[in-house]
Design a protein that fits this description.
The chain is α+β, with helices and mostly antiparallel strands and 237 residues long. It is 35% helix and 19% strand. The strands form 3 sheets. A 5-stranded antiparallel sheet has the order 2-3-4-1-5.
């Protein structure tokens, strides 16, 4: 993927002012998000997939490269091509920040590492990015990391009070991380094929996701709260 904070050569009535805009192209979603700006030129963060066949992408893509992908994959109203926008062609004016983002997935073999010759303490706990890494699809990484920390705090209190189960904590959180990685991969696969599915299927997806129980299920899955289990919620010493 490429992410960039850009300004445009002219204003356009279709540019969002307060909300994110997601359009679907041949390579998947193209995201346009207005950012707070202290200058007269509104700043937007854009993000889009890069074809797998593209090689030797620079870490910080140039203005011309960003423009090429915007024309190829962005919504028509952001095109600099006179044929696409005969009345109001628009170009990327400046790029304040840009980055090529490569999807990486990984998980630690163990989330709890006990020091040699010690039965309980000291120990090293892995949480957040130290324990797992995956695509940002769905914003799952932040939720998972926060819940790792919450769960660890409660399991530590439980251990200090005389309980046991830090190994159980490590196993439980690793299972949750594996599930989260699977969900993020599924979301990325869906985003890659959205531009190639028939239009009638969009209506089917819209209909299915309009049901409250489906919305609750998706919210529970993306937040990860369904998987957050700590001993202090049901036990007391």
């Amino acid at each position: 993927m490429i992410n960039a904070d850009v300004t445009w050569s002219s204003t356009n009535k279709e540019l969002p002012l307060k909300h994110a805009l997601v359009t679907i192209g041949s390579m998947g979603p193209f995201v346009t998000i207005p950012l707070p700006s202290q200058t007269s030129d509104p700043t937007y963060r854009i993000g889009f997939h890069v074809p797998h066949c593209t090689t030797s992408l620079p870490r910080d893509p140039s203005l011309s490269l960003i423009q090429k992908f915007v024309d190829d994959q962005g919504p028509k109203f952001l095109s600099s091509d006179q044929n696409e926008q005969p009345n109001e062609p628009i170009k990327v004016k400046t790029s304040k920040w840009s980055q090529t983002f490569t999807m990486v997935t990984g998980i630690a073999g163990r989330f709890l590492i006990r020091m040699q010759d010690y039965q309980i303490w000291p120990a090293v706990f892995l949480v957040g990015d130290a324990a797992h890494v995956h695509s940002p699809a769905g914003g799952l990484g932040m939720n998972l990391a926060i819940q790792d920390a919450i769960a660890l705090a409660e399991w530590l209190v439980w251990e200090i009070k005389g309980g046991a189960g830090l190994d159980q904590f490590a196993e439980q959180r690793r299972e949750v991380a594996q599930r989260t990685i699977s969900v993020s991969k599924m979301l990325m696969r869906w985003s890659m094929v959205l531009g190639r599915i028939p239009h009638w299927l969009y209506w089917v997806i819209t209909l299915i996701t309009s049901f409250p129980f489906v919305q609750r299920l998706v919210a529970s899955e993306l937040s990860g709260l369904r998987e957050l289990k700590c001993p202090l919620r049901w036990m007391k010493l």
